[in-house]
Amino acid sequence: MSKTKIAVIGAGLAGLTVAKHVRDASVDVYEATDRIGGKLRTVAFEGGPTDIGAESFIPTEDMRAFIEDLGLTGSLVDPTDAPTLRWDGKELSLIDVPRTTTFRHGLQELTEKLAEESGADIYIDAFISGITRATDKESGKEGFRLKGGEDKLYDHVVLAVPAPTAALLLKQVDADAAQALAKVKLANRVVVGMRFATGEGLPEAAEVRIADGADGVRAAAFVFSSQRWPHLADRDGALVRATLNVEAHADEDDLVDWALDDLATVTGFDGRAAGLEEIYVQRWFGAFPEDTAATKAAAQEASELIAQIPGISATGAWVSGPSICDVIAHARATADDVPTS
């Protein structure tokens, strides 16, 4: 008997986790962009790999077991004791936050290992524009075909893409689920990664979080990566990540200027005078679901409707929540529920 054919649409953290954990099946993963990883992205700075998406995760017992199973425990790095600060629009104060951990060479270690361990066929630059129900003419077997995918009849399709994309894919399969998914609104974010010649003048902290409602700045947070992570402290200069609540289509020069201006406003650090030696701007369109009652209700409705569609599953930040731990946990549960031969 041939193995169950599974299609996973989306090669971000959720999709790769599903591909790794589905058992006794033939798995194809389709990714519309030119790389795997989704909202996890590690880029090459002069001193070495640097995360420009999510940077770390809470090392829960389940996560440590998950990492150990992948053989990556030796790559984990714990943070320094530098504190986290909060800026309320006027002054900085200490706050308590959970300790997190990361990988020495960036979160790309996690996504690359998942891809390797999955044994799946992963298709990059593979834009899937729709899913249709189909029947094999010879055997009479029912399943799904993907517009833009391989010429195969799939027994099960896992949607590991943002809700608006899932809505488009499901239009011909289930109009009600597609309509509910379209109501899940996403927020955009921009991350500006900067390496300064010196970090002298930065607050002695791991990060600064900007309070909701703080006037006069566009930033949501600043992470002082060289002070947060001991392996990054060994590099030349000072790495700082600014997360901005702005329109992601804004001009790149404006984004960098806003990051520098807000950094000076919040911390007093003059990044221009310190010597800005390296920049990487990452625009995250649809970074995560909006934190509103309407979006949460829409996500719940969509999740319940998709659960009623035989042969279709959905996972990802829009249904699990945006944290790395939650995304992985939901994706593993999704994989466990996929029927295989």
UniProtKB/TrEMBL annotation:
Q: Which domain of life is it from?
A: Bacteria
GO MF terms on file?
oxidoreductase activity
Query: What Pfam families does this protein's entry cite?
Result: Amino_oxidase (PF01593)
Record domain Amine oxidase: where: 13-93, 102-338
Which segments does the entry list as coiled coil? Answer: none
Q: Tell me the SUPFAM superfamilies matching this sequence.
A: FAD-linked reductases, C-terminal domain, FAD/NAD(P)-binding domain
PANTHER family, per the entry: PROTOPORPHYRINOGEN OXIDASE
Protein name per the record: Amine oxidase domain-containing protein
